[in-house]
Amino acid sequence: MTQDKLVLEKNVHNVCYAFYRYEISSGLVQLEQTVSILTEIIAQNQFEETKLSEMNLLLSTILKAVENKDFIIAADLLKYELLPRLAEAS
After folding, report:
1. Which of 50, 60, 66, 84 is the most buried (most CB within 10 A)?
2. In this predicted structure, which of 5-9, 33-37, 43-47, 58-62 has the lowest mean pLDDT?
3. What pLDDT sits at residue 1?
4. Please, where are the H alpha helices in the chain?
């Protein structure tokens, strides 16, 4: 696993920890950093079009959950959907 992916995984766990504890402002700051790292990873790697579409849909769903203040759902999607897909794609 690359260094960026390790940092991303750590950030995702930090976001989830904050959201599960309802420390929303901290979680949102961590989420912003996570999205930035994820953007770098996507730019550096060649993903199949279907995998990229799946990830975009998943990220849209996470964003919608955050907009709706469903922080537990956002954390679960990050932890149980996004991380496994990234691991699978590497």
Report:
1. 66
2. 43-47
3. 53
4. 3-20, 24-44, 49-67, 71-77, 83-89
Would you tell me the crossing angle of helices 49-67 and 24-44 to the nearest 10 degrees?
Answer: 170
Going 28 to 29 to 35 to 38, the CA torsion angle's sign is negative
Distance CA 90, CA 46 (A): 10
Name the token pair of 10: 């750590």
- Please check whether residue 40 is in contact with residue 4, taking contact to mean a CB–CB distance below 8 angstroms: yes
Task: Report the alpha-carbon distance of residue 68 to residue 55 in Å, rounded.
Answer: 20
Tokens of 38: 């994820």
pLDDT tens string 38-49: 888 888 877 788
Q: How far is CA 49 from the centre of its chain?
A: 19
